[in-house]
Amino acid sequence: MALTSATVAAELEAASKVGDPAADTLVTDLLENREVDGINALFRTIGTLKPDTDMSRLPDRLAQFLREAATPPPDWSEVDVKAAEGTVTLTDRVG
């Protein structure tokens, strides 16, 4: 299904029910290893990341997670990505 302003809310609602297995695994691993400071650092780091961030300075687990998370779902088009980002233009929709 192509994402549009009409379907984004429904897709986000559906996604919220599934969660994010990769993120859940990373946070669970940090908790199980008593790395609560790592969880706090994780969320502080995520909040400051830019597209050109040098990930070589990040912990390996976080850098790997971010590389995997940056990849759009395989069945998404460029218009779907722009719709999810809220940057779809009328030209994109008419296509």
List keywords for this structure.
single chain; mainly alpha; globular
Structure description:
65% of the residues lie in helices and 0% in strands. It has 6 helices and no strands. The longest helix is centred in the first third of the chain and has 14 residues, at 5-18. It is globular, with a radius of gyration of 16 Å.
What topology emerges from the helices and strands here?
Layout: H1 5-18, H2 21-32, H3 36-48, H4 60-69, H5 78-85, H6 90-94
User: Gyration radius, to the nearest Å?
Assistant: 16 Å
Q: What fraction of residues sit in β-strands?
A: under 5%
CA-based shape: globular
Coarse structural class: mainly alpha
What is the terminal separation in angstroms?
A: 16 Å
Work out the oligomeric state of the chains in this entry.
single chain
**Largest beta-sheet details:** none
Unreliably modeled segments: none
Helical amount: 55-70%
Secondary structure tally: strands: 0
**Count of DSSP H/I helices:** 6
Summarize the structure.
It is built from six helices and no strands. The protein is mostly helical.
